[in-house]
Amino acid sequence: MRGALSGLTTRGRCLLAAGFAAGLCAIVLNERDLLRVAAFVVALPLLAAWLAQRARVGLHATRLLHPSRVQVGSATDVRVELRSAGRLPTGGLLLEDAVPYALGARPRFLVERLPRNIVTVLRYQLKPVMRGVQQVGPLMARITDPFGLAEFDREMAGRSRLVVVPRVVALTGLPSGSGMGSGDDGSIRLRAGQGEDDAVVRPYRHGDDLRKVHWRSTARRDELMVRVEERPWRGGTTVLLDHRLVAHRGSGPGASLEWAVSLAASICLHLHRYGHQVRLVGDDGRVLAGGPGDSGYSDAVVLDALAALQPSHRREPAAGLDPGAGQEVIAILGGSTPAVVDALVRNRPRGTRSLAVVMDVGAWGSASTSEEPAPDPTEAQRLLSGAGWGVVVARPSTPMGQVWQELCHSAGNRGPVVRTEVG
């Protein structure tokens, strides 16, 4: 009963107090009719509170998301199933599903009557505007009686996981010599079956497995030779994403970081379609997708990694590391100072093909009083071009497909690389 009384509304408490006052007056004045009215007035809010509490206990709900993985700007359907297992029908039910701000306004429903043991289905749509791993729920239910004398809140349906992946833009074409480091289009060579010699051999040593004997080399050298490794050639590309917070401007869906993430997703999926192995790495050198334990051809792995990606608080990229690990690199850079560009160029091997998209982050939003002014992208472009990189400057007014086309064109028009000959 104490739990039921805690659910009384202001109206119910006032009515209960009025009933007790009327009862006290009836006893003092010896008015039996007034006492009967007082008993009814006291019993009404108590009965309403008891019925509302019983309805809360017997209420159950489940939530289904279809699909549970959606791209930014696309819609997902949410289905909520309600069922009352109590002995009495439930009425006056107000429902509100907890939804993060990035998914829109919180949906609300008013159910006037919920029959016993019959599933009632509620539907609504979510159209996310920001990528991320979001939690939908819990579902809050407020149960009231028809007179508004009592109300109880209940948390139901738990939380449902919704993965919002970045927007992917269709791209066309490949950089000249993509996946090869130089030369013809990698996709053409893959289809033609050309590649490097897939066997590295050495002289036979006592204890070597005879099944690894390379008979062609043995016949040619007149000496027993065994295979050290057999690694078929596959085109490989590393996509470097600069997600440092200090290197980007803007907020919300129009932030420069969100544009960079979308471009990285589009490039990775585009290269996948051409059969390229792709490694996606962050500015700290951490492999986000396509590492040794992953074939690198799963679009879902790349998109999920980018959906969960958070801005980095590093001031500069990881020092002393080649982000491409010997592969060709396509770097998506935010606002980059000459020191950042110098570190990136210094760690890349000479002659290895490198491409970069330098973002004019100042065009995405001006710096606040606590931020430094955005670096000049033309200075970064000049330094990278002088080191032999193919570079293009990206601005929010330029379509993403056009930026990719210009980057592909820059791959065949790179400046000379200064080489040091060792005599």
How far apart are the first and last residues' alpha carbons, in Å? 96 Å
**Beta-sheet strand percentage?**
25-35%
Kindly report the average pLDDT value: 82
Fold-level CATH name of the largest domain: Rossmann fold
Give a quick precis of the structure.
It is built from ten helices and 18 strands.
What's the topology here?
Layout: H1 2-5, H2 10-29, H3 32-57, E1 59-66, E2 69-71, E3 76-84, E4 90-97, E5 108-114, E6 120-126, E7 132-136, E8 139-144, E9 151-156, E10 160-165, H4 186-192, E11 199-203, H5 215-221, E12 225-230, E13 236-241, H6 256-273, E14 277-282, E15 287-289, H7 299-307, E16 328-333, H8 338-346, E17 354-359, H9 377-386, E18 390-394, H10 400-411
Parallel strand pairs: 2-10, 13-14, 13-16, 16-17, 17-18
Antiparallel strand pairs: 1-3, 3-6, 4-5, 4-8, 7-10, 8-9, 11-12, 14-15
